[in-house]
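User: Fold this; C-alpha coordinates only.

Assistant: Input:
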Amino acid sequence: MVRPLKNRTVSGPPKMVGFKPYGIYLNAKKPLRLKFEEYESINLVLHKNLSQEDAAAEMRVSRPTLTRIYNKALKIIAKALVEGRTIEIEGGNYQLDDDWYRCKKCFKLIQGIESHIKCENCTSYNESELINLNRL
Protein backbone atom coordinates (compact mmCIF):
# COMPACT_ATOMS: atom_id res chain seq x y z
CA MET A 1 0.00 0.00 0.00
CA VAL A 2 1.33 3.41 -0.99
CA ARG A 3 1.77 6.00 1.72
CA PRO A 4 -0.39 9.12 1.17
CA LEU A 5 1.46 12.26 0.11
CA LYS A 6 2.04 14.86 2.79
CA ASN A 7 0.91 18.41 2.02
CA ARG A 8 3.74 20.81 1.23
CA THR A 9 3.62 24.25 2.84
CA VAL A 10 3.30 27.10 0.34
CA SER A 11 3.66 30.67 1.67
CA GLY A 12 1.25 32.15 -0.88
CA PRO A 13 -0.25 31.43 -4.28
CA PRO A 14 1.39 32.71 -7.46
CA LYS A 15 0.23 36.09 -8.76
CA MET A 16 -0.68 34.55 -12.11
CA VAL A 17 -2.59 31.46 -13.18
CA GLY A 18 -0.10 30.56 -15.91
CA PHE A 19 2.07 31.64 -18.83
CA LYS A 20 1.53 31.67 -22.59
CA PRO A 21 4.19 31.66 -25.29
CA TYR A 22 4.43 34.68 -27.55
CA GLY A 23 4.27 34.27 -31.34
CA ILE A 24 2.82 30.75 -31.57
CA TYR A 25 -0.69 29.38 -32.12
CA LEU A 26 -1.84 28.40 -28.61
CA ASN A 27 -4.36 25.66 -29.40
CA ALA A 28 -1.72 23.57 -31.15
CA LYS A 29 -0.52 21.77 -28.01
CA LYS A 30 -1.98 20.76 -24.67
CA PRO A 31 -0.90 23.04 -21.77
CA LEU A 32 1.53 21.77 -19.15
CA ARG A 33 0.53 21.81 -15.50
CA LEU A 34 2.85 23.21 -12.83
CA LYS A 35 1.65 22.41 -9.29
CA PHE A 36 1.70 25.01 -6.51
CA GLU A 37 4.48 23.19 -4.63
CA GLU A 38 6.60 23.06 -7.82
CA TYR A 39 6.09 26.79 -8.31
CA GLU A 40 7.03 27.40 -4.65
CA SER A 41 10.26 25.38 -5.02
CA ILE A 42 11.31 27.53 -8.00
CA ASN A 43 10.36 30.68 -6.08
CA LEU A 44 12.40 29.74 -3.01
CA VAL A 45 15.49 28.29 -4.70
CA LEU A 46 15.87 30.49 -7.80
CA HIS A 47 14.03 33.70 -6.99
CA LYS A 48 14.68 34.04 -3.24
CA ASN A 49 18.10 32.39 -3.61
CA LEU A 50 17.65 30.00 -0.67
CA SER A 51 19.68 26.82 -0.40
CA GLN A 52 17.74 23.63 -1.00
CA GLU A 53 18.04 22.81 2.70
CA ASP A 54 16.52 26.15 3.72
CA ALA A 55 13.82 25.90 1.05
CA ALA A 56 12.96 22.38 2.24
CA ALA A 57 12.64 23.61 5.82
CA GLU A 58 10.34 26.44 4.68
CA MET A 59 8.12 23.99 2.76
CA ARG A 60 8.30 21.51 5.67
CA VAL A 61 9.62 18.63 3.55
CA SER A 62 12.92 16.75 3.47
CA ARG A 63 15.75 18.03 1.27
CA PRO A 64 15.54 15.01 -1.11
CA THR A 65 11.78 15.62 -1.50
CA LEU A 66 12.40 19.28 -2.29
CA THR A 67 15.01 18.26 -4.87
CA ARG A 68 12.50 15.96 -6.60
CA ILE A 69 9.83 18.69 -6.63
CA TYR A 70 12.33 21.29 -7.88
CA ASN A 71 13.73 19.05 -10.64
CA LYS A 72 10.23 18.22 -11.88
CA ALA A 73 9.38 21.94 -12.00
CA LEU A 74 12.54 22.68 -14.01
CA LYS A 75 11.68 19.93 -16.51
CA ILE A 76 8.15 21.30 -16.98
CA ILE A 77 9.45 24.85 -17.52
CA ALA A 78 12.14 23.64 -19.94
CA LYS A 79 9.60 21.59 -21.93
CA ALA A 80 7.25 24.57 -22.17
CA LEU A 81 10.06 26.85 -23.31
CA VAL A 82 11.46 24.46 -25.92
CA GLU A 83 8.11 23.25 -27.27
CA GLY A 84 6.29 26.59 -27.01
CA ARG A 85 3.60 25.28 -24.68
CA THR A 86 1.40 27.07 -22.17
CA ILE A 87 1.97 26.53 -18.44
CA GLU A 88 -1.01 26.44 -16.08
CA ILE A 89 -0.24 26.78 -12.37
CA GLU A 90 -2.80 24.94 -10.28
CA GLY A 91 -3.43 22.23 -7.73
CA GLY A 92 -1.05 19.75 -6.17
CA ASN A 93 -0.42 18.58 -2.62
CA TYR A 94 -0.08 21.87 -0.84
CA GLN A 95 -1.21 23.76 2.20
CA LEU A 96 -1.31 27.56 2.30
CA ASP A 97 -0.33 29.42 5.47
CA ASP A 98 -3.43 31.67 5.23
CA ASP A 99 -6.78 31.64 3.44
CA TRP A 100 -6.27 32.92 -0.10
CA TYR A 101 -8.88 33.73 -2.75
CA ARG A 102 -8.71 34.82 -6.40
CA CYS A 103 -11.37 37.02 -7.97
CA LYS A 104 -12.97 35.29 -10.99
CA LYS A 105 -13.40 38.64 -12.78
CA CYS A 106 -10.09 40.48 -12.33
CA PHE A 107 -7.91 37.57 -11.03
CA LYS A 108 -6.75 39.72 -8.08
CA LEU A 109 -5.33 37.75 -5.12
CA ILE A 110 -7.04 38.31 -1.79
CA GLN A 111 -5.60 37.19 1.53
CA GLY A 112 -8.65 36.40 3.65
CA ILE A 113 -12.19 37.09 2.53
CA GLU A 114 -12.56 39.97 4.98
CA SER A 115 -9.67 41.75 3.18
CA HIS A 116 -11.47 42.01 -0.16
CA ILE A 117 -11.78 45.57 -1.43
CA LYS A 118 -13.52 46.06 -4.78
CA CYS A 119 -11.10 47.25 -7.44
CA GLU A 120 -12.03 49.20 -10.56
CA ASN A 121 -12.12 45.99 -12.65
CA CYS A 122 -14.75 44.36 -10.42
CA THR A 123 -18.31 45.38 -11.21
CA SER A 124 -19.89 43.50 -8.35
CA TYR A 125 -18.75 41.45 -5.38
CA ASN A 126 -20.08 38.40 -3.65
CA GLU A 127 -18.44 35.23 -2.39
CA SER A 128 -19.52 33.20 -5.43
CA GLU A 129 -17.15 35.33 -7.54
CA LEU A 130 -14.10 34.25 -5.49
CA ILE A 131 -12.10 31.06 -5.97
CA ASN A 132 -10.84 29.57 -2.71
CA LEU A 133 -7.21 28.65 -3.48
CA ASN A 134 -6.97 26.49 -0.36
CA ARG A 135 -9.34 23.95 -1.94
CA LEU A 136 -7.98 23.51 -5.47
